[in-house]
Amino acid sequence: MITETARAKINLTLWVGRKRPDGYHSIDSVMHSISLSDEITLEKSNEILLTVLEGDAPAGQENLMVRAAEAFFAVTELEGGVFLTLKKRIPSGAGMGGGSADAAAVLRGLSKAYEHPLSKEDLLKVAARIGADVPFCVEGGASRCQGIGEILTPARAWEGLPLVIAMPPLFMPTGPAYQKLDERKELSIDKTEDCLKALEERDWEGLADSLSNDFELGLFPNSPGLLSAARYVQSFDCPAVMTGSGSAFYLIPGSHEEGQWIVEQIHEEKPDWFAQTAETVGRHEL
């Protein structure tokens, strides 16, 4: 039996370009893995089965974990299957890549269970077929992600940076957000290079100044609830940015102790919110 940790991600920057002829949007983003994670176990079997032991997630074909396993066996042409179990702790719809992280964990686990039948490059190609964030989640750490998210350039991870993850009970569909962004006459300023420099130099103020997410431009004007949530998290007087296209925010407090205090305040003032401390982490070993 193999146990894999499926780590959530945050977008330190997320610049969204114009819609491409294929219907997708080009992005430029710095993604960073964090300690908030799901737990997945894998055991060789004659078929592909998934059991959800904790949390709320689909157990059938609609789960990216099952699709990842199917893709792995199809590409490797190996006979057999895998029995998967999932303990789901990353909130769904948060924009933190929970489903992608789970799928990536399945690919890593199967690669180990079947003695690495694919090269790292081929494993990442399989990951790209499953979802745009899956290739990043296979290795994690910190990377610049371009194209639709499949073009990865490793960056220097800033491990141990204290975080607070705060998520109001809101579901934000990405379609309307993209539509709103498509109405822009001018694109926003891409702060990705500034962010990469701040990571390299361990420049906290530079990092704080570079944090950005274009989806805030597309979602806040059309969602009073999300805008109110943004103003609330910003009231803690530390950098606070929405991550991905979901409704979760990450805050970067000055210390782990300050982060714990913020979580306690959110639990008291917003009992229906998800709120938890976390920190940035490095790469998975493949």
TrEMBL record:
Its EC number is 2.7.1.148. Residues 63-141 form the GHMP kinase N-terminal domain. Pathway: Isoprenoid biosynthesis; isopentenyl diphosphate biosynthesis via DXP pathway; isopentenyl diphosphate from 1-deoxy-D-xylulose 5-phosphate: step 3/6. Keywords: ATP-binding, Isoprene biosynthesis, Kinase, Nucleotide-binding, Transferase. InterPro entries: GHMP_kinase_C_dom, GHMP_kinase_C_sf, GHMP_kinase_N_dom, IspE, Ribosomal_Su5_D2-typ_SF, Ribsml_uS5_D2-typ_fold_subgr. Residues 196-268 form the GHMP kinase C-terminal domain. ATP binds at residues 91-101. It catalyses: 4-CDP-2-C-methyl-D-erythritol + ATP = 4-CDP-2-C-methyl-D-erythritol 2-phosphate + ADP + H(+). GO terms for molecular function: 4-(cytidine 5'-diphospho)-2-C-methyl-D-erythritol kinase activity; ATP binding. It comes from the Bacteria. The keyword DNA repair does not apply. The active site is at 9, 133. Belongs to the GHMP kinase family. IspE subfamily. NCBIfam families: ispE. HAMAP family: IspE (MF_00061). Catalyzes the phosphorylation of the position 2 hydroxy group of 4-diphosphocytidyl-2C-methyl-D-erythritol. This is 4-diphosphocytidyl-2-C-methyl-D-erythritol kinase.
